[in-house]
Specification:
five-stranded antiparallel β-sheet, 3 domains, 483 residues, 13% strand
């Protein structure tokens, strides 16, 4: 068709845009949509059949008759165009009219809800977010079925036109944190926002820090817990992960499976994670410092073993450590980029072959090989991937500092790290809270996961308008039926 409404000529340049003319009592009606985004069954049964069955109706009468829930009347061409690119069908009466009916006929395709792939747990629900924003909001709504659950939706990205939803609990989430989050999302000026991880980096307080200041998760039960604690959740259409903030440093070493296990077991596992982080960062630098500068501090029990393992190694400790650390990182990257079955084989076979060959070729010592392998394993205990990558990268400045100044270098690097963490914030909340600023009442769910009787108050650093979860005295006074 050569004759189209003037406002539709730009869309007509695309091969998948369909625009044709329909007559209703000699009045011309123009129907336009993008066929690659539109469900043809909805177009045929709900829209075209309705136009044919009611030829004498006016524009407003026809709008009321079409049996589709999501529809609207628009005059602004920008709104009309944006909705057509979202799968809506535009119906315009007359060639020069600027008024269109917009009827939702978008194709609903996507994978079904599956088990978590990254945050898999033995205990607890087995549902994970998918790429559909509506399905993800449904997963949250079913877990938080209260009227206080509020959703703010906006469009971000001049090219991607991404739907982004900010989810929070009215009366529990702090308004200052919420306004900060919404303002930063509205200030995002980027053309293509393909995933929530991009938003995660764009709205953080310090984008130059290697430490993440928000948590990404694929588990709707974890998001429900965060919302009830007073945190704010961000979801993006097309992304299978949710982001929530504000968070503190200790949150990255807590997995939500801790809350499904008995509190004593969960506390032990949590302490193992914190010890693993400490070991992963400091083990290799301490080896470099001790072997290079402080050999007199090695116990006589270990000294013969270390000397005998290094007697044929031609490299200084710093080169020896860097070789092994880079080999571990290469194996990790190769295993992550290859298909899963091949990646597992590369990791196991490559680690055994290269480790054995490196020791036999006198490129490294047995003692260092054990330290590096344990450090790599310890880094995997961090449940949040972005923090795990941060912990791995932290080792290298500590190694170089240990080579230059020994134990003093490690101490200086530690001070610099602590100073950086003290300056970090998440949506304005201090990153090291409750240790700095110190809040004794909020220490109950950090290194130790307490029993649920201790969760009677929300963390004060979330500044929730409603800090009480339940009345502690009433819960303690309640008796069992057989008492």
């Amino acid at each position: 068709m050569d004759t189209v409404p003037p406002l539709w000529k730009e869309l007509k340049e695309s091969a998948d845009f369909v625009c044709y003319e329909h007559f209703m009592n000699a009045e011309r009606v123009f129907i336009g949509y993008i066929k690659t985004l539109t469900d043809m069954e909805t177009v045929q049964r709900q829209i075209l059949s309705c136009l044919s069955d009611h030829p004498g109706l006016s524009f407003n009468e026809m709008y009321a008759v079409i049996p589709v829930a999501e529809k609207e009347i628009a005059h602004d061409w920008k709104i009309i165009q944006d909705n057509i690119y979202r799968g809506y069908v535009a119906v315009q009466f007359g060639l020069q009219s600027h008024r269109c009916m917009l009827i939702n006929a978008a194709i609903s395709k996507g994978r079904s809800v599956t088990i978590p792939e990254v945050e898999f747990t033995v205990e607890g629900p087995k549902e994970a977010f998918v790429e559909s924003l509506d399905i993800n909001l449904n997963l949250i709504r079913t877990r938080v079925p209260v009227p206080e659950l509020r959703i703010r939706e906006m469009t971000i990205g001049s090219v991607s036109k991404s739907r982004v939803a900010v989810v929070y609990l009215k009366g529990i989430a702090n308004e200052a944190y919420l306004n900060t989050c919404v303002q930063r999302l509205e200030d995002v000026r980027f053309d293509q926002v393909t995933d929530s991880t991009l938003l995660q980096q764009m709205i953080e307080d310090n984008s130059n820090s290697i430490f993440p200041q928000s948590i990404g998760t694929e588990r709707p039960d974890y998001v429900a817990w965060a919302l009830s604690s007073g945190q704010i959740c961000i979801l993006k259409d097309g992304s299978p992960a949710s982001v929530f903030a504000p968070v503190n440093f200790w949150s990255f070493f807590i997995t939500y499976e801790d809350y499904y296990l008995p509190w004593i077991i969960a506390s032990l596992l949590r302490m193992i994670r914190f010890f693993s982080v400490f070991f992963s960062v400091f083990a290799s630098p301490l080896y470099v410092a001790v072997i290079t500068y402080h050999g007199q501090g090695v116990s006589n029990v270990f000294l013969p073993t270390i000397v005998s393992s290094r007697i044929n190694v031609p490299f200084p400790p710093i080169v020896e450590v860097l070789i092994m650390e880079l080999v571990i990182e290469l194996l990790r990257e190769a295993g992550a980029r290859l298909p899963s079955k091949i990646g597992q084989t590369i990791g196991i076979v490559g680690g055994i072959v290269l480790g054995t060959a490196a020791v036999e070729a006198a490129l490294t010592s047995n003692f260092l090989l054990i330290i590096v392998a344990l450090s790599a394993l310890a880094s995997f205990t961090t449940p949040i991937f972005r923090m795990s990558a941060t912990i791995r990268m932290l080792r290298f400045p500590f190694i170089f500092a240990a080579q230059i100044w020994g134990l003093l270098g490690i101490f200086i690097c530690t001070l610099a790290l602590v100073a950086h963490l003290l300056r970090l914030t998440s949506l304005g909340m201090p990153y090291l809270v409750p240790l700095y600023p110190f809040r004794k009442a909020d220490l109950y769910d950090t290194a130790i996961r307490p029993p649920y009787s201790k969760f009677h108050h929300r963390f004060s650093f979330f500044r929730s308008p409603n800090p009480v979860r339940f009345e502690r005295k009433k819960a303690a006074a309640k008796k069992d039926i057989d008492d």
